[in-house]
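User: If only I could read backbone structure tokens as easily as an amino acid sequence. Underneath my words sits a plain record pairing an amino acid chain with its backbone structure tokens. This is the protein in question:
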Amino acid sequence: MLVLASASPRRKELLSLLVKEFLVLPADIDETPYENEGAKDYVIRMAVEKAKAATLIYQGQGHQDVSAVFMASDTSVVVDGHILGKPSSLDESKSMLRQLSGRSHQVLTSLCVCNQAYDHIATQCVISEVHFRSLSDVEITQYWKTGEPQDKAGSYAIQGVGSVFVESLVGSYSAVVGLPMFESAQLLAQFGIHPLEEKSYE
């Protein structure tokens, strides 16, 4: 059994392209960065903590499958070394998108795959570079009113309306959406889960 430690519909949709069946167990953790914590260390720590939190939920629900594998991911938008979280207001969204306007930023997406005993933990961090065209305050306000930016790191979704801001992307599109497909397949294979076998029903 594969368990996805995420409430994100985007990650669920992407993982379903690799694996036929999996259990979704969202893990609620403290996502506050440590003081002076680097962005890469932060996103990897978030994925590991989400995966471990999901194992505790799984065990608490009385599941008996000791061979269960847990998968978690975290995505952060980083500009000038600063991590941009999810905006809670139009003002926060404006602040974030103004920082991204007319320039490049990094999107860091981490992966953690582990077993219940934690004696096999595999992690990876995928870094992509996204370049935005210049944005006007009117566009930012109009975008906020779509409802799309409100639960997105960096206040935009590359797979949605926010794609109109993206001039270029160097890296992994699926990682920017929330789950790097190539790296996910590589890590899952380490745990005996092979997407091509899964999807061909062999």
About this structure: The chain has a mean pLDDT of 94.
